[in-house]
Amino acid sequence: xxxxxxxxxxxxxxxxxxxxxxxxxxxxxxxxxxxxxxxxxxxxxxxxxxxxxxxxxxxxxxxxxxxxxxxxxxxxxxxxxxxxxxxxxxxxxxxxxxxxxxxxxxxxxxxxxxxxxxxxxxxxxxxxxxxxxxxxxxxxxxxxxxxxxxxxxxxxxxxxxxxxxxxxxxxxxxxxxxxxxxxxxxxxxxxxxxxxxxxxxxxxxxxxxxxxxxxxxxxxxxxxxxxxxxxxxxxxxxxxxxxxxxxxxxxxxxxxxxxxxxxxxxxxxxxxxxxxxxxxxxxxxxxxxxxxxxx
Length: 295
Prior knowledge:
By secondary structure, the chain is an alpha+beta fold. The protein is 34% helix and 14% strand. The chain contains nine helices and ten strands. The strands form two sheets. Strands 4, 5, 6, 7, 8 and 10 form a six-stranded mixed beta sheet that branches. Strand 5 and strand 6 form a beta hairpin. Helix 6 runs antiparallel to helix 7 (239-254), helix 6 (218-233) packs parallel to helix 8 and helix 7 crosses helix 9. It is globular. The chain starts with 18 loop residues before the first helix and ends with a helix.
């Protein structure tokens, strides 16, 4: 019997991808930027290189510089559609520890209105146009086409997640997606009694007789913000208290001269969220710190 001239190898099994990674790759292929969430359903913390945003952050964080770290850093700003990044060694290691997949709604051109209780859902059915709906553990996500500023606690049990935020992926949902209505946009600018004020750039004037604000020196202000980020990042316990005390210190030093901007506040919030704080906790801590200082 003449032996075959070639031998056909039967390929072995391909490496099994973690379930969250498979879902993430499918979403990324449709243009939805994704990221892994660890236990507690929060983003992974920054690596040592990115601690305190020493790398200047991701490009889409609207900060100077460009982070070239291969890790899953900077919370929502880590979200990507690049399959090479998603399946890279450092990201794969994170996917193996991930408990679920999140996405950046604003990066996908979407806004998620998160309703946390039946009363909020009942209100929405009478006040907002119908759109695609996704069931959550406690309520529903209503997804609209279009982006806006994210804000929590716009009403009791109602949060808005779009730009600079992430939402858990809980499936495609049901219903036809509608365009983002003015009624939703209005929620982010009105001040209902139960809402917590969103962080804003502080415009408190410098005290009389103090002359030109010394904090406007870029190096001085940058050092203060970087130290605050590092203090939050280094917290190994009592994160809530550390975040509040850090916000209080920043406002004490820089809050009365008008030099803080939305970009500075976003950096502090991002550092806190990377430690597991929610946007609502950050907003409450900031508001409480301002109230403590009489701002």
